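for the writeup, i need someone to sanity check this before i put it in the appendix. the sequnce is what the collaborator sent (i think, or maybe the updated version? ugh). structure was predicted straight from it, no edits. if anything looks off just tell me and ill rerun, i have time this weekend
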Amino acid sequence: MQVKMLACIPVVPSRDVQESLRFYQTYLGFQDPFTWGENPIEYGGLSRDGLRLHFYLEPNAEIPRNYAFRLEVDEVDLLYVACEAAGIVHPNGKLENKPWNTREFTLLDPSGVAIRVYQELTG
């Protein structure tokens, strides 16, 4: 196939899109939010460091709680300290080295989406 893939944008279920956008801006440094729809906002997104996330309004509370994605960072320990202080680390997602050569922890966003934050281990 001669088509070049240019991006992969997760579309994350959210119980409240505006609240999700605030969370990702406040705790993970995403910027440039956009929204579509009003009362309630039905869709939105933001970006950081060339990454983009989109959110859609999901009325079924079980859907977000069964959704997860991975986010690779370059300073996992530094981000962990900030997230632990903010109280957003999953109770069973403490920072640890994994056998697949990553150091990672898990966050929960306001809708219950699991974000597995990791850094590749070297050596």
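The longest strand covers residues 51-57. The radius of gyration is 15 Å.
thx in advance!!
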